[in-house]
Amino acid sequence: MALGMLVNGKWTTEWTEHDESGNFQRMQTKFRGTLDKLQEDDRGRYSLYVSYACPWAHRTIMTLQLLGLQDFVNLIVVEPHVGEMGWYFSEKYKDKNYGFKYLQELYLKADSNYTGRVTVPVLWDGKEETIVNNESLEIIKMFNDTFREFSNKKFNLFDENLSDKIAGEIDYNYDAINNACYRTGFAKSQEVYELEVTQLFKELEKLDAKLAGRKFLVGDSLTGADISLLPTLLRFDVAYHGIFKCNIKRLKDFQNIERYKNDLLAIESIANTFKPDQIKSLYYKVVELNPSGIVPLGQA
Ligand SMILES: N[C@@H](CCC(=O)N[C@@H](CS)C(=O)NCC(=O)O)C(=O)O
User: Does residue 144 sit in the same domain as residue 166?
Assistant: First the structure.
């Protein structure tokens, strides 16, 4: 992965996601639209652009599959590697809408002056030819709340009666675990790294205790809180332990977290979204972290 971004519509290799002390600070996403009501005519109108390797996109793929929305929304997958020009398409991973070569072309179609990172996931509106939203949590909520009318309705991941608890878990875990792995991996000083990794493992201990005797984070069924956390857990021993140096313990050393993760992975529409080789390859090819780009054969 060579990190870069668009500035006023032009691709640069700038990457400004650190503060002066070397702390990783994630840039905010720019497209934050919502959809309130859909019609049967909207079948095929929207596309979800993803990479199976990306944890944020992984949330949206899981949700799409759990809700059975594959006939309503087109799934478009990028090559599992971030190249010199960011995410790209290939013979195998085609942009079925426009035949674009790079994902940045989609962003520029939505806004020719766009400034920001070119990230997945993207929820694309093929009728208006614009990006509805590129923030994973907002996309999974929209799938559940707006698109679910056209789904098999097997799951309701954001039950209104549990919404405060679900939102609380998602917020807490984002900071404590999901993004903490990135803050650890992208720390630019020994001091920042040590603080982050120590705190992350304290939080994992807490999570392990919380999951004792529990199948789900909130209530007694699968919710958006589980879907938001799980992609990070699935990347932990596969990639974060090595390349992000999140290595005080392996995730499989946490008994309850490991059982929780494996129980969720037993759900078919989750299992078939987990592609460990793509995950390893994406993270170990981040040039800033691993200049040789060598991907290890094993994992923690
Ligand atoms: N806030 C976004 C984050 C998405 C994100 O950071 N995606 C990464 C992949 S894991 C990406 O596309 N990175 C490419 C880049 O920054 O150039 C979300 O949750 O949807």
Answer: no
